[in-house]
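Researcher: Here's the sequence for the chain we discussed earlier.
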Amino acid sequence: MTQADIGIIGLAVMGKNLILNIADHGYTVAAFNRSVDKVDRFASGEAKGKQFLQLLKRPKKIMLMIKAGGAVDAFIEQLLPYLEPGDILIDGGNSHYPDTQRRYEELQKRGLLFVGTGISGGEEGARRGPSIMPGGHAEAWPHLKPIFQSIAAKSEEGEPCCDWVGEGGAGHYVKMVHNGIEYGDMQLICEAFDLMHTALRKDYPTLQKIFSEWNQGELDSYLIEITGDILQKKEEDGRMVLETILDVAGQKGTGKWTGINALEEGAPVTLIAEAVFARCLSALYEERQQAAGHYPFVTPQGEIDTDKIADALYAAKIISYSQGFMLMRLASEKYDWNLQYGAIALMWRGGCIIRSRFLGKIRDAYRKNPELKNLLLDGFFVGEMSRVVPNLREVVAFGLLQGIALPCFSAGLSFFDGYRRKRLPAYLLQALRDYFGAHTYERVDNKRGEFFHTKWTDSSGETSSSSYNA
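Model: Thanks. This is the structure I predict for it:
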């Protein structure tokens, strides 16, 4: 009996396409499927499940391509009786990284190797070459590396868009940040589109031409490319498909996870957070219809060059990615993951949704300086931002004056302006906190880590606060 190199559980589109991709590269795949909503009946099919497992070479390599959440835990629980120490379980779904960390720790106690693998690129990527972000038990990587790197997308230089990310939940964490950046990228594109379509009154053929031109330069990316495609798609009756789509955005949670984690880590990932909130605002559809009756939209009258909008989009994109990599750096330090940021940029260079020419510059920045604190401090990006930020500033001012909401453009510019300031008004904030709550403050004329309290009024106390925060 021919033994399989890897087993795939879950035959939805992603699972089936991965199987075909793996088979195309000379590996034998065993497949098993059970509807996620019937996962509690898995035990009744034990004989079939056992046969599937007996087809696998040791160490067994089993990849779950099923819906994230309880279904993953249920499948793992059902598989455990048939696994031996050293066998490898891989979760290829969009699991939240704390769940992956928990499974990693639980399975380690049983001698099993767990890998949480972020996969990006959608169904086409799964079939032709996705971006793959594996993390978990490092001992599993030598067994998975030949398969994963052969089926992954390749950069223009032929490098696989797949490498080991780190221990525990690192792989799914990096995928989470990827999706957060994806939220930002899409919202920025929407804001650029809205400026040109609503404020500048550009029709769809003109917009399609503009986005196609943008895709030939520094904005070259998958999302810009498909925006051009969308802008020319028509219904059978000749209407633009875009005109038939309700303006209520969906989301599956990964962008929200990024925003929540940024708050937990104290990272000012403002642009991605605004992209999430923009989707939340779109969901207030009925309320927005009422508000529009009270506050009618006045058709804009101004003009601005679309080349400046392109520069603004490029500047905001740099800021968004700088925030995403900043968040990963904080997580890497907290969890001791030793993330390799240049390798992550390479993983995202092809196959994934945010793939772009721009990521090659990020890879170069981190290869040149692996200890780089922020992309905005890299020489190349300092030069680029110096060139394009004046246009970002002009575009944001233009949009606000025209009554066009630009949450991500605005958030990006505000972050940049705050990041480049030597002295922020936070000193007044600290004085306010000390006045009403005796929270103390540091002084510019003393070393960091020493805290002081001022008796602001005759009635205020001498004791600083140590029992609460406000």
